[in-house]
User: Which sequence fits this backbone?
């Protein structure tokens, strides 16, 4: 049933064990569930974390092919978490999915320019297209 | 300084009044003087408004300068008052300042009047400028608060819209959902997109997000507003 959905019809039909594994870090539970639902319907394997700290712990426990994160979250923000990821030399690609990304953040964190960013509210197709592009770029590099 | 300076002169002696006016004009201060002698005339001249400066004698047959000064202090505190009197001793001078007068000048030394007037009018200008600056600061602080509020509202609202838009997309993308439910879900999504446009404007206002100018077809934009099908 999942494969026949028009919005997600281009989803890569993958066997479960071959599916890309994505970590969604988002403090708003409705959005976390929604994004998880969309990604699962498109054939991805998805875990959720409620803030930057939980996200960091999840990244330590498992290997992920992609990290999708909000920025403004309690405890540890998305930007702080990404900094830790980069500092630890993890190779996981990142997508920022946030409602606000002030210009000041780009000034203090110039590397953000290179991070694909989705501004909420974004469409499901935008999310999936961005995910697909980032993953295929990554797979291309790996080959 | 304004020209002519509109002066209200509380003075019973017409000759003294003329001497005072010519002392000012000799110093290049152009003034339009209204001379009054009684409390009633004094108050009604002030009530008419437009007075820039008050000059006042201390002893008058029908009124006295100190009471006049207190009256000005309570009702017209922004108008400076200078005593011009023949009977100015030290004690009277102290009383006159206590009553809220800006300055006092003895009639026998009218050469001091013009500098006193200039100083008084400069103080008025400085006070007005200070008041204006304070108002601007308060206005700027208000705008800052509104900006923070609107960006907070926009942030939370965008999160809610993301959920509404996302789930309506999930409905429309499900082939087992038939018309008219699919159509209704589509309308929910379109309306949510318009709301998202509003929150973007709020964020632009609060300068938290870059403006993304877009070339649009006005016909499409108007058509987007038609939520319900035309019957």
Assistant:
């Amino acid at each position: 049933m999942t494969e026949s959905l028009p919005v997600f019809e281009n989803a890569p039909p993958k066997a479960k064990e071959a599916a890309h594994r994505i970590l969604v870090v988002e403090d708003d539970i409705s959005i976390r569930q929604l994004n998880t639902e969309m990604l699962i319907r498109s054939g991805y394997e998805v875990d959720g974390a409620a803030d930057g700290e939980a996200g960091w712990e999840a990244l330590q426990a498992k290997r992920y092919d992609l990290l999708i994160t909000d920025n403004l979250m309690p405890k540890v923000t998305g930007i702080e978490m990404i900094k830790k990821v980069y500092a630890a030399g993890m190779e996981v690609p990142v997508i920022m999915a946030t409602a606000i990304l002030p210009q000041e953040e780009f000034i203090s964190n110039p590397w953000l320019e290179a991070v694909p960013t989705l501004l909420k509210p974004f469409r499901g197709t935008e999310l999936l297209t961005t995910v697909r592009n980032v993953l295929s770029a990554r797979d291309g590099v790996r080959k | 300084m304004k020209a002519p300076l509109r002066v209200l002169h509380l003075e019973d002696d017409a000759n003294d009044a003329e001497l005072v006016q010519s002392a000012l004009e000799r110093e290049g201060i152009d003034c339009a003087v209204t001379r009054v002698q009684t409390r009633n005339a004094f108050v009604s001249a002030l009530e008419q408004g437009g007075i820039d400066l008050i000059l006042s004698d201390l002893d008058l047959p029908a009124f006295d300068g100190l009471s006049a000064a207190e009256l000005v202090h309570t009702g017209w505190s922004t108008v400076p008052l200078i005593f011009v009197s023949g009977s100015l001793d030290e004690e009277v001078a102290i009383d006159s300042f206590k009553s809220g007068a800006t300055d006092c000048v003895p009639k026998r030394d009218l050469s001091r009047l013009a500098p006193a007037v200039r100083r008084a009018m400069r103080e008025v200008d400085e006070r007005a400028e200070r008041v204006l600056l304070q108002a601007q600061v308060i206005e700027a602080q208000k705008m800052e608060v509104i900006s923070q509020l609107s960006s907070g509202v926009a942030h939370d609202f965008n999160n809610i819209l993301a959920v509404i838009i996302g789930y309506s997309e999930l409905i429309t993308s499900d082939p087992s959902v038939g018309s008219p439910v699919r159509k209704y879900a589509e309308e929910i999504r379109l309306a949510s997109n318009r709301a998202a446009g509003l929150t973007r404007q709020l964020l632009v206002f609060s300068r938290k997000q870059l403006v993304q100018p877009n070339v649009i077809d006005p016909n499409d934009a108007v058509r987007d507003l038609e939520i319900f099908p035309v019957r």
